[in-house]
């Protein structure tokens, strides 16, 4: 038989194995619409079972007076728990701050071949595959020689700072672009870059951009020479 409960009882503790039957009063420390603290097990956050729907076949609940005596300790625990939640929330909401410690995806260069052509003294020939992660922007640079690059997958946003870029579209159409200008290179498009072309690429999409390139550069020159 269900007990007769005081009118200001709003529910009874009922969560997992801690079904202690503690009465939840209107002035209990509340952590949400259906969550409170129970002094019987003060380190456990309890769910509420509405008092009108509860049959207490669990240990005898605390009386109103016992509850008042136990409540300060429960309140302290609740405040501590709420503070902990606040700190945790601050930590997670500043995800950008915590994420800052995680290295950003890096551009990957995979060497496919390298040679020093006899008919190009003082020059080194490179064959590489370059993968640019999603939402990654390269620094402004130029190549100390001539480079031909073809987009295999993804869409490359190509920013011409100064100079002329020669683009051969996938269908065979050749176009010349003079900077400053932003163009788009899609799979099958190829671009010829000279030493006078200052530029940078960016992957504004959600999938990596993969490029195959051949570069004939001055001996000892970096694969990309940074520019301001």
From TrEMBL:
Q: Which SUPFAM superfamilies match?
A: RmlC-like cupins
Gene3D superfamilies assigned to the protein according to its UniProt record, in alphabetical order: Jelly Rolls
- Report what the protein is called: Unannotated protein
Q: Which source organism?
A: freshwater metagenome
């Amino acid at each position: 038989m269900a007990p007769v409960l005081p009118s200001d009882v709003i529910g009874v503790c009922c969560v997992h194995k801690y079904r202690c039957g503690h009465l939840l009063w209107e002035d209990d420390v509340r952590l949400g619409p259906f969550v409170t603290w129970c002094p019987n097990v003060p380190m456990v956050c309890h769910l509420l079972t509405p008092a009108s729907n509860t049959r207490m076949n669990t240990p005898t609940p605390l009386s109103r007076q016992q509850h008042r005596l136990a409540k300060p300790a429960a309140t302290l625990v609740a405040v501590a728990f709420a503070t902990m939640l606040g700190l945790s929330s601050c930590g997670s909401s500043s995800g950008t701050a915590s994420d800052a410690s995680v290295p950003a995806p890096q551009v990957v260069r995979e060497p496919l071949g390298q040679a020093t052509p006899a008919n190009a003294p003082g020059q080194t020939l490179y064959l590489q595959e370059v993968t640019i992660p999603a939402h990654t922007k390269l620094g402004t640079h130029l190549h100390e020689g001539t480079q031909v690059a073809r987009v295999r997958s993804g869409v490359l946003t190509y920013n011409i700072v100064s100079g002329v870029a020669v683009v051969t579209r996938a269908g065979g159409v050749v176009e010349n672009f003079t900077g400053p200008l932003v163009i788009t290179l899609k799979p099958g498009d190829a671009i010829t870059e000279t030493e006078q072309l200052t530029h940078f690429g960016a992957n504004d999409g959600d999938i990596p951009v993969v490029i195959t390139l051949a570069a004939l550069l001055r001996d000892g020159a970096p694969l990309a020479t940074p520019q301001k």
